[in-house]
Fold G-protein coupled receptors family 2 profile 2 domain-containing protein.
Amino acid sequence: MCDCFSLFSDLRNLSGTTLMNLLAALFMSQLLYVIGVGGVPDNELCIALAFALQYARLCVFCWMLLMTHNMHNQFRTGLHLVPITDNQITRNFVRYSFFGWGLPSVLLGASLLIQYHDKAGKLLDTRSLKGQNCWFLDKNAFVYGLLAPSCLLVAVTFYYLVRSAVLARYIISIQADIRIREKMRRKRTLQILLFTKLTIVLSAVLALGSATKLTRSDPVWIAYHVGQGLQGILVAMLVTCNCQVLKLYTRSLKSRAARHVSCYTGRGGASTAASALSKSTSLQLLTWDPVPDPV
């Protein structure tokens, strides 16, 4: 996904930056999950892993909310397909960063206090954490530090999704040109559906993790393993397929092949052939045809 960010300029805006931060937080949570596979015997590493995972999970839901908030703002200010240039992108991104990375820090501090109180000051007592590979804090710190805030963030995310859908429907209906109306409908629908799918996937994994922590059921434990393991792949596939990166790449290859064939066969005139020749890296086009007369 970082390659897509560097290659496609459409991602280098506030929407693309929030998406990259979401993927970064998701990658961090997946990496920490893998570290805990097989158990963590060291007490310091165990408690650090549990707190780090809780922070990463909170960051994921915060950035998901920020993505939907930014989408709603775009729909509200953009009455046409051409997006309005954001002259305050730096200030808006700083605000988003304070929320996306700062709010989880505050909630993590609250979780630390709850965990410290429940353990009577003995934070390195990780016997209750090692039973689940140090992926979760104790019950109170998990419920009040992760589950309750995440449910609130998901609820606000769905609120912005519904508001965005209603707003998009109204804006589409006032477009005079039928072609612009249909194009806008496809674009807005793809974006809303993508964010809805991402929110559902993240919420489902959170629900499985919560059920695993609270019920300690073996079937739910296995289901959580599967969901957490596939979460990153599902999110990457949803984002990639929605952005149609592969279609864009194959389209560029076809256009290059068409220019190569037209130049090689001599169609398009001398100026077109010379222009294509100057931009070509094909050795076949760098030969002299016809062969020049000897001097």
The two ends are 56 Å apart (CA to CA). Confidence is low (pLDDT under 50) at residues 1-9, 267-292. The CA atoms of residues 84 and 252 lie 27 Å apart. Residues 251-286 form one domain.
